[in-house]
């Protein structure tokens, strides 16, 4: 290759990289909730070993129970602006990126960012923990991937959140331990349900899901309904 051809090739490569933005390869293997207590590792791996399922049941047994309260006064704004980087006490807090983008970058593979940004995710691949499908996501179809609050904000509100200070609400809404990018249709079907009324369609992930639900509830000293606790224990038998 001549010097002139080499320069032309390099220039073309620079143009391509500039157009597609920065790419990042995340770890391919999802983490078990039992080894991901910070929520900073990607995904949600099934819990299958007998000893691990026993550990999960012991965790769930620690949950307090109470009846579900009224929905009076609930709105999303009670937890701060949607995905704003305003929490202070959780991983990724005040890092300059919106919470949603932090989570897409954590769980996505072949992540691509908007040109000139180290935050705004515009494309990626996601192995959805709830359905098992591989999603090749692009911002043009943003709703195909939604970031689920494992313990829904509305559920939390009805179980005691109105008594919390705003700082704790912000942490709860933006804590990566409580957040999973998932297939949008599954998230919408879940809505604000607890485990007694909704579980992931993928049966093999259900013990891991309820374990994560328990981890979040325990971290924030949030009770669950008796029916939800019973359903959670059943999934990890």
Chain-wise SSE layout:
Layout: H1 3-20, E1 23-24, H2 50-61, H3 99-107, E2 109-113, E3 121-127, E4 134-138, E5 145-149, H4 153-158, H5 166-174, E6 179-183, H6 184-190, H7 206-219, H8 226-235
Antiparallel strand pairs: 1-2, 2-3, 3-4, 5-6
Helix pairs in contact: 2-7
Task: Offer a few descriptive terms.
12% strand; two-stranded antiparallel sheet; 36% helix; alpha+beta; 8 helices; disordered N terminus; four-stranded antiparallel sheet; 237 residues
Mean pLDDT: 91
How helix-rich are the residues, as a percent range? Answer: 25-40%
Classify the beta-strand content into a percent band.
5-15%
What's the Cα radius of gyration? 20 Å
Which regions contain 5 or more consecutive residues with pLDDT less than 50? 3-20
Shape: globular
Looking across the biggest beta sheet, what order are the strands in? 1-2-3-4
Q: How would a crystallographer describe the biggest sheet?
A: 4 strands, antiparallel
Count of alpha/pi helices = 8
Describe it.
This protein is of the alpha+beta class and 237 residues long. Helices cover 36% and strands 12% of the residues. The chain is globular. Helix 2 packs parallel to helix 7. It is built from eight helices and six strands. The strands form two sheets. A four-stranded antiparallel sheet has the order 1-2-3-4. A two-stranded antiparallel ribbon has the order 5-6.
């Amino acid at each position: 290759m001549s010097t002139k051809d080499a320069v032309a090739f390099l220039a073309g490569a620079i143009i391509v990289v500039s157009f597609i933005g920065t790419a990042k390869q995340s770890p391919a293997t999802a983490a078990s909730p039992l080894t991901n207590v910070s929520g900073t590792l990607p995904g949600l791996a099934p819990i299958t070993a007998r000893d691990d399922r026993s550990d999960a049941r012991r965790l769930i047994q620690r949950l307090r129970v109470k009846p579900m309260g009224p929905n009076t006064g609930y709105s999303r704004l009670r937890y701060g602006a949607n995905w704003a980087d305003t929490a202070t006490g959780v991983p990724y807090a005040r890092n300059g990126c919106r919470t949603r983008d932090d989570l897409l970058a954590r769980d996505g593979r072949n992540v691509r960012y908007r040109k000139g940004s180290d935050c705004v995710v515009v494309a990626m691949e996601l192995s959805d923990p709830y359905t098992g499908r591989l999603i090749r996501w692009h911002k043009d179809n943003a709703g195909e991937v939604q970031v689920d609050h494992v313990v829904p904000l509305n559920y939390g509100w009805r179980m005691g959140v109105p008594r919390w200070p705003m700082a704790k609400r912000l942490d709860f809404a933006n804590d990566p331990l409580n957040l999973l990018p998932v297939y949008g249709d599954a998230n919408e079907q879940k809505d604000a349900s607890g485990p007694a009324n909704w579980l992931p369609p993928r049966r093999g992930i259900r013990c891991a899901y309820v374990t994560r639900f328990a981890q979040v509830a325990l971290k924030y000293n949030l009770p669950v309904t008796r029916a939800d606790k019973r359903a959670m224990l059943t999934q990890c038998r």
